[in-house]
Amino acid sequence: MSETEPQVEARRSADLRYALHLFRKNPLVLAGLVLSVGSIALALLSPFLVNSTSWQITHPLLKNCWNNPLFGWGNANIQRCPSPLPLGTDSYGRNLLTMIVLAIPVDLQIALEVVLSAVVIGIVFGATASYAGGIVDEVILRITDIFLAVPGILLAIVFMVVFGRTIPVLTGAVLLIWWPTYVRLVRSQVLSEKERPYVESLRSIGAGRLRILFRHVVPNSIYPLLVQATLDIGSVILTVSALTFIGLSPSPLLPELGNLASLGSQYFFTAPWLIIFPGLTILLISLGFNLLGDGLRDILDPRLRR
Amino acid sequence: MGLVLFGISLLMFYLTRGFLPPSFALAPYITPRMNDAAKLALAQSLGVATNSCPSFQAFSALQGGCLVPVWAQYTSWLTNVLKGNWGLTLLPGISGTQTTVSVFFSRFPFTAQLAVMGAILTIAIGIPLGIVSATHNNKLPDHISRIVSLGGYSIPQFWFGYVLLIIFVLYARVGGLGLLPGSGPLATSCAICFSNPGTSPTVTGAPIIDGIISGNLHYAWDSFVAMILPAVTLSITSIGALTRIVRSSMLEVLRQDYILLAKSKGLQERVVVYRHALRNALLPAVTVAGLLTAFLFGGVVVIEIVFDLPGVGYTSLQAVNVFDINFVELYVLVTALIIVVTNLAVDIIYAKLDPRIRY
Asked: What ipTM was estimated for this complex?
């Protein structure tokens, strides 16, 4: 009736092989994997690739030194223009390519911090709500309702005005937008999971409530959480860059993709690439995580394997 | 519903009163000619200073016994807010001359118009795209619509706006092409089309409607054309979201037995899809209306910055820079009210659409 240990092992490895097969079969997921892993690798390597203090050094003479070879279009009137830089310089006279490489880890770090904290908050409060039920559940649900009824970006703006414009506050402001989704996700997952027969049998052999919850139910409902987290890294980067773009950047000099785009947007008539490339970087990173998350959902969802 | 609004007001109140010095609560109500005694009376009437406070200096120095604890300020704050007493605006240029409420509601119709246009575009593109995607599952139209929806999800809105501007305005001008009719007003700033006193009749504050009401159809058309790019930019994310939802629910419905039955009866494909499947497939799409409203009203902040539009989103950023928190707070509460009402409407419509649901 029940499977023996080797049978379980065999089924698991077959599952894994099938998942890998699905993975290889889907070029979009592979593209997502390449983009997301590539951006993380670039973020980790960025201190070795470029001088990590160069963002603080502005070159008034190189300001607006736009001789972008890709566009074959630029400002050749400035005397001191150096040999063509790959993407030209930004309005502070800094090498734009260097700034983008420096900005990727900043954005990714904020996104990862936000998503990981949201997952932890989601597990703690979502599991508590669904397991405690009754008034606790009701209160937690109503609080998430409140946060979901405010446009996220407005909430973040108010939060940043009150607590100041720093990177930790920016992270907190974006976390404020994201945590309710995870509480609800974990809650609904745990609710459906705890009606399964295995929970009943665990209870019948005398396992404690907390043990069942955190050792069995939560790990079993982790896949949707993983998918949502992967998808949300992209969305968080979009929100962070939108916030810094509209002027809530901790410092105008900060190499952060939204901030770089904001600097470039002032010159979009004369030097469109100054906004095109930072924005394109955001698009690629976000697209990477969204493709990966979409693919993970298809692969991890057994209902779609028919 | 009331509970949610109450919670939001509590949240806003604690964020702004609990963590900022009390002078911020006073700033919108102070007029230039007030002396210290008047300021103290004001602080007491706002419920920020205690009645036993000896002088305004003592209050400014945050002396003990002068400050009302934050939790006790809520009722006086709420009465003020409900009476519409949001103080004077601190916005640069018009600081102290108009009330926050009048500034907000003179600019809000513009933003609402943009959001409504975004919503219309979202529904007009998102739903058909989702249907086509589901009925042509894993064929070319499906791939295209998945790319559109995923791209819409991943694209930074502000960047998309600028790319559209670069394509339609910059290149159209350089190449001497008028890609869109009247590409003049589209040029970066709508200052040209919306602040021209000769042509802008202001009745409601929403230019298109104003133009139609006052019979100035030329103005209405110009405003409409100028709003195309902002509305497209605004709706791109929600189009992605809606397409995805419609596609998955349509796929789910098309797999069901009654669809098979309808097909085996010999009904045309079109009839099966649009008469039998669509009604059920749209149910999940209706439930996200509240979420999409939040999307749209949050998105306008960024869009109005990119396209230089004179709505409340743009103004709230100006307000943020001069710490005019009341303006942003008002924006949050009005938007929250709209979202809550939308959610209520969704519940009612849902019950109408699906007779199985009873409340």
From this structure: 0.86
